[in-house]
């Protein structure tokens, strides 16, 4: 019989018999923690692979380099966010229902990826640290346009009172942004998911048409 060869993860050294998917996740998790605590620029490949329990060739095999690893760890949460925004806008339901779904789903993704959000904030508001460019503004604009579109549909259908849709949009976005920043900067004072829901209730009660409150026609099929 021929000699049995144990399969390894591409580059082999350091990865042992660990499944490739687990190796990738360990590298992504290790890099996320280090980028969030030390910053992108200050984190070395050596530190990432040591935390993941693999070797440098393993990282290079899966991600090419530190830049590729950074782009990959950002792609997951932001890709999910973009899909949620696009999908929620086209769902059935009243404008109020869809705004709640959109904001709470976006907030859930944020909570699930706090370290990724911390990295994004540090790069967006601070020095770029040599990190590859990601158009974070495009994601914010997508969310902004989605909220505005739903508000405008609510006004059109008589669910929300007439007025400047942009004002209602900024009120909604502002509440979500404050909730997110509290979770990052002062978690002990965080609103949490239910707190965001309560604040949105106040805002949407304020823009509701008194005669049609709770009786919106909803999105037409």
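^ structure tokens above, recovered residues below v
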């Amino acid at each position: 019989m021929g000699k049995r060869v144990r399969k390894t993860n591409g580059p082999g050294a350091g990865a042992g018999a660990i499944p490739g998917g687990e190796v990738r996740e360990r590298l992504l998790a290790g890099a996320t923690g280090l980028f969030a605590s030390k910053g992108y620029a200050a984190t070395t490949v050596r530190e990432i692979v040591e935390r993941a329990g693999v070797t440098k060739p393993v990282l290079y095999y899966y991600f090419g380099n530190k830049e590729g690893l950074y782009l990959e760890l950002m792609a997951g949460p932001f890709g999910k966010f973009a899909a949620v925004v696009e999908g929620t806008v086209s769902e059935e339901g009243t404008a109020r229902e869809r705004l709640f779904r959109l904001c709470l789903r976006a907030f859930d993704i944020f909570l699930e990826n706090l370290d990724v959000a911390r990295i994004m904030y540090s790069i967006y508001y601070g020095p770029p640290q040599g990190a590859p460019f990601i158009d974070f503004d495009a994601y914010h604009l997508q969310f902004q346009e989605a909220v505005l579109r739903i508000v405008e549909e609510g006004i059109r259908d008589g669910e929300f009172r007439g007025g400047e849709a942009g004002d209602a949009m900024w009120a909604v976005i502002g509440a979500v942004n404050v909730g997110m920043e509290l979770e990052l900067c002062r978690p002990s004072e965080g609103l949490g998911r239910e707190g965001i829901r309560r604040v949105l209730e106040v805002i949407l009660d304020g823009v509701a048409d008194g005669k049609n409150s709770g009786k919106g026609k909803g999105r037409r099929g």
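The two ends are 65 Å apart (CA to CA).
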